[in-house]
Amino acid sequence: MHEETAQRWINELELERHPEGGWFRRTYTSELSIGSRPAMTSIHYLLEAGDFSALHRLKQDEQWHFYSGEPLMLHMISPDGALSATKLGPQGPFQATVPAGHLFGASVETAYALVGCTVAPGFDFSDFEMPSRASLLADFPEHELLIRRLTRI
What we know:
CATH architecture: Sandwich
CATH class: Mainly Beta
Largest sheet: 6 strands, antiparallel
Protein name: DUF985 domain-containing protein
Number of strands: 13
Strand content: over 45%
Organism: Pontiella sulfatireligans
CATH topology: Jelly Rolls
Shape: globular
Distance between the termini: 41 Å
Order of helices and strands: HEEEEEEEEEEEEEHH
Oligomer: single chain
Strand order of the largest sheet: 1-2-5-12-7-10
């Protein structure tokens, strides 16, 4: 068996950089449509230690599935400001869902985490919002440490 490393997965799965951080590649687009969009889409997503998935939100639910590597922390801020976190990893849980409209980001402490993300109805960048650090601090000052840690601008 090949040694499982972040670079091995990046090469083998032909991952590309993602605008929110990390590496990704779309793996599935449903042929079934809901209006003008696919009913569901899925990606492989890899996050390395020292990088993070910046806080962002979608208009749809997104389900995360753990595949390989080290535990990944999925951080969420609900529209009313409630903070929660789920640690996906080899000891479980193996999946978590981010409800539509929640801000969320992810981090991994060591090595890497390889996960899958499924969005229904299917993902479209027009449904993707990555607010600035300043706007998030204005809206959620009680979460300043997390916001500073999981934003780039």
